[in-house]
Design brief:
29% strand, elongated, 12% helix, 2 helices, 277 residues
């Protein structure tokens, strides 16, 4: 304790711990029982979990908002929702019944359906990556003013990012499952019952049908459309529309058997070339 610098900030998870430190240092560290620690007038602590709510938020009495979570003005939290510590629910965000939100999640400019699971560190509804160069050569930001809308029974993995829309809402369909570390750009529309594996990147304004499966590290360029019931092998790159259901793979993605033939022919050519040397 002697090594603590005068301006060191300490995060103490319990009022008892804060009180003990205050007595040890002889300093006025505020505790939960002191007047200085009370939330400002527009906010109140939620009786079921200890999180902080804006008084203009609508939270169902059965919802749990854990200590360290913050719910902003106009947000709507449904029945039996759990909001984990460190999570921020932004203004006018809505969260449907029985959804589970992990730790350190950020929800802004979005709606989340019923029975969803959002794992730790996910960010939903932030601005998309939209810029242009004006006539003076300056890089300017394009307005990002629409929403991200998550359907029912959707699961979103840890540290996945889903951007809000600019010309149409970003949409994730019912029963879709998204792995960790996935990037979904602005204006993307994903259908129902899709499965998206880790490290997938979907560029802005892409459209996916229902029952699409994306293997790990698949990349999809902007403004392409992928038909329902398409499956893409890991590390595939989609550069143009895929209009027929089926299995695809490669860089760029082609029907899976064509990709296999390309791979075999490349290996045979490489071996023959090596043997000639």
């Amino acid at each position: 304790m002697a090594a603590i610098l005068p301006r060191t900030a300490l995060l103490l998870r319990t009022p008892r711990g804060a009180g003990r430190l205050a007595r040890f240092l002889g300093a006025g560290v505020p505790t939960a029982s002191s007047g200085n620690s009370r939330p400002p007038a527009p906010a109140a602590r939620w009786r079921n979990g200890g999180g902080v709510l804006h008084r203009a938020a609508s939270v169902d009495p059965t919802a749990v908002v854990e200590a360290g979570a913050v719910v902003h003005s106009g947000a709507v939290i449904g029945k039996e929702v759990v909001v984990g510590s460190g999570t921020v629910v932004g203004p006018s965000v809505s969260v449907g019944q029985s959804t589970r939100i992990g730790y350190n999640v950020v929800l802004s400019n979005c709606s989340v359906g019923e029975f969803c699971t959002i794992h730790n560190g996910a960010c939903i509804g932030q601005d998309g990556f939209g810029f242009f160069v004006d006539q003076d050569g300056q890089v300017k930001k394009k307005p990002q003013e629409l929403y991200a809308r998550i359907g029912d029974n959707v699961e979103i993995g840890a540290n996945t990012c889903i951007d809000r829309g600019s010309w149409r809402d970003t949409m994730i369909g019912d029963d879709t499952k998204i792995d960790n570390l996935v990037q979904i750009g602005h204006n993307v529309v994903i259908g129902n019952c899709c499965m998206i594996c880790g490290q997938v990147g979907i560029a802005g304004s892409a459209t996916l049908g229902d029952y699409v499966v994306l293997g790990g590290r698949v990349a999809i360029r902007d403004h392409v459309s992928i038909a329902s019931k398409v499956r893409l092998a890991a590390n595939s790159l989609v550069t143009k529309d895929i209009q027929e259901p089926g299995d695809y793979g490669g860089f760029p993605a082609v029907p899976i058997n064509e990709w296999r033939r390309q791979t075999v022919n490349l290996r045979l050519f490489s071996k023959e070339h090596h043997d000639r040397r």
